[in-house]
């Protein structure tokens, strides 16, 4: 018999007069609230047409599109097997998302159990993930405008500031990357993929980790060396994500974040940062927009500083976004990026690209 746990406990740490915070994670109507509160496994199976429409796969299982009898669309994540890891990841995401409510975070509607199977039901994101646009083979014709990209970047930052500081739960996501950034109907971003997230002790911004988790290419180098995880680990991954959003065709074609970082660093060192910007964006955007994009590249380089202590907080990053004429520190360029391109140095990546999970409540495009 199916057992169901309903996420009706919402812990809100709310600033006054802030429209970023939301009071409920449900679908927005009383009828939907009633329906979801009576969810069981058979309801999930019927909504997903017996799990026939897969819209995402990853290390944690699969995600399916569903439709309730009311017509509301949902996304259902089904965790793989009954392993200790699966149980831990499921419980972790339920615990954390039940306590976090913000317009730039994915809304978890219901968790459900059926024998050894675990399910999470989310709001449905009609514009898929940010990754689907970055990796689109026809990106030249589907390039998002800088205005849309800027709004996406700022929305991600606001979501991170909330989990790092404003929620007062001091959550480190540990897997920020484009496939965990979902886009709603208006292309507003929502952070998903909280299986690996970690709540710190009250007032602490870092902690020790015995196992390195996350996605290669987005992992904080200091975290990989020492096992010390902090909010600055998310800042690093956020910086890499910014670069992937604005990257040029040359950088994108490698599909490797380490090569992308090396390319951006070398361009910056030669005073040629404009060549980091995607060709279509560089040709179509106005001069003032290009200047703003270059500033965002500058900020991204500050976020991926190998020394976590000198990386900015997300709150500082948002200040830099909003105050265009505030001077920025010079990024620290590592020794391996100081050689000129004329040396014909081989671009062998020190890390291979990979994923921890591409599991997200998204749509197929």
UniProtKB/TrEMBL annotation:
Keyword terms of this UniProt record: ATP-binding, Cell membrane, Glycoprotein, Kinase, Lectin, Membrane, Nucleotide-binding, Receptor, Serine/threonine-protein kinase, Signal, Transferase, Transmembrane, Transmembrane helix
Pfam families registered for this protein in UniProt: Pkinase (PF00069)
Annotated membrane topology: Single-pass type I membrane protein
Subcellular location per the Swiss-Prot or TrEMBL entry: Cell membrane
GO-annotated cellular components: plasma membrane
Record organism: Raphanus sativus
Family classification: Belongs to the protein kinase superfamily.
Protein name as catalogued: Cysteine-rich receptor-like protein kinase 45
Biological process annotations from GO: defense response to oomycetes
Residues involved in ATP binding: 77
């Amino acid at each position: 018999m199916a057992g169901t746990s309903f996420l009706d406990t919402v812990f809100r740490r709310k600033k006054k007069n802030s429209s970023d915070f939301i009071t409920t994670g449900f679908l927005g109507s009383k009828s939907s609230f009633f329906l979801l509160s009576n969810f069981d496994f058979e309801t999930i199976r019927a909504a997903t047409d017996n799990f026939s429409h897969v819209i995402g796969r990853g290390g944690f299982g699969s995600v399916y599109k569903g439709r309730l009898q009311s017509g509301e669309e949902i996304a259902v994540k089904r965790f793989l097997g009954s392993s200790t890891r699966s149980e831990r990841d499921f419980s972790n995401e339920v615990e954390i998302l039940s306590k976090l409510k913000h317009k730039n975070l994915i809304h978890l509607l219901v968790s459900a159990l059926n024998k050894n199977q675990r399910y999470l039901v989310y709001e449905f994101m009609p514009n898929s993930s940010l990754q689907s646009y970055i990796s689109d083979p026809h990106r030249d014709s589907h390039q998002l405008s800088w205005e849309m990209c800027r709004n996406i970047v700022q929305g991600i930052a606001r979501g991170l500031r909330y989990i790092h500081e404003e929620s007062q739960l001091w959550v480190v996501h540990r897997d920020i990357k484009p496939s965990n950034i979902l886009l709603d109907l208006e292309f507003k971003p929502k952070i998903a993929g909280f299986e690996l997230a970690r709540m710190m002790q009250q007032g602490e911004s870092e902690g020790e980790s015995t196992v390195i988790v996350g996605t290669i290419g987005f992992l904080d180098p200091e975290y990989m060396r020492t096992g010390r995880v902090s909010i600055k680990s998310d800042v690093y991954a956020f910086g890499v994500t910014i670069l992937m959003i604005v990257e040029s065709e040359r950088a994108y074609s490698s599909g490797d974040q380490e090569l992308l970082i090396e390319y951006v660093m070398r361009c910056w060192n030669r005073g040629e940062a404009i060549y980091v910007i995607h060709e279509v964006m560089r040709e179509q955007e106005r001069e003032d927009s290009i200047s703003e994009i270059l500033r965002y590249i500058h900020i991204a380089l500050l976020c991926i500083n190998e020394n976590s202590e000198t990386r900015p907080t997300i709150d500082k990053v948002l200040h830099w976004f909003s105050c265009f004429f505030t001077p920025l520190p010079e990024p620290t360029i590592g020794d391996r990026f100081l050689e000129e391109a004329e040396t014909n140095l081989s671009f062998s990546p020190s890390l291979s690209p990979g994923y921890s999970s591409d599991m997200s409540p998204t749509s197929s495009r």
